[in-house]
Specification:
With 174 residues, the chain is mostly beta strands. It has 2 helices and 9 strands. Strands 1, 2, 3, 4, 5, 6, 7, 8 and 9 form a 9-stranded antiparallel beta sheet that branches.
Length: 174
């Protein structure tokens, strides 16, 4: 069932603990270099969970492996791991911590929380669709971030600071 199937006005229908299935989860990012060259890649989700209370309150996490950035360009990927960008030796993960959620449109929920990158946390609100079938749930979301908000401002002439993230997170009810 999706949120719209039930015309859900709260999340009590989904009460319980949901554990991320990293093998069925994907995170893509898109940006531009030299103003026009599209760069896209992936980063691996390594763990996560969502706890939905009997009152509909939600909390959760999605943890990404910052060492796994893959743009299909080994030189660029190695540079992303350095101090110029993610400094993965010191900050090996990127974490979204959800602190709340509320249905906002048919089939969609607004997730509120914070995103921690490079040791810095900033508030982030994400609009997502939720599809639950039995004990399996998928959360699809897209969000735009400016990496300079997290101190990642290194830029070769024309390199974009804006990034578009596409997340498809699959959860299994515990």
């Amino acid at each position: 069932m999706t949120l719209s199937d039930q015309n859900v006005t709260d999340l009590t229908t989904f009460a319980g603990t949901w554990i991320l299935d990293p093998a069925r989860t994907s995170v893509e990012f898109h940006t531009k270099a030299m103003w026009v060259v599209k760069v896209k890649g992936t980063v691996k989700a390594i763990e996560g969970r969502a706890d939905v209370g009997s009152d509909g309150a939600l909390s959760g996490t999605l943890v990404l492996d910052a060492t796994s950035f893959d743009t299909h360009n080994k030189k660029r990927d190695a540079h992303l791991r350095t101090e110029d960008f993610f400094e993965v030796v010191k900050y090996p993960t990127i974490v979204f911590t959800a602190t709340g959620a509320r249905p906002v449109l048919p089939g969609q929920v607004e997730l509120t929380g914070s995103l921690t990158i490079h040791g810095q946390s900033r508030p982030l609100t994400v609009l997502a669709s939720v599809d639950v079938t039995g004990g399996h749930g998928t959360v699809d979301a897209e969000v735009d971030i400016d990496r300079s908000d997290w101190g990642l401002s290194w830029s070769k002439l024309g390199a974009g600071l804006a990034n578009h993230l596409v997340i498809k997170a699959h959860f299994v009810k515990e």
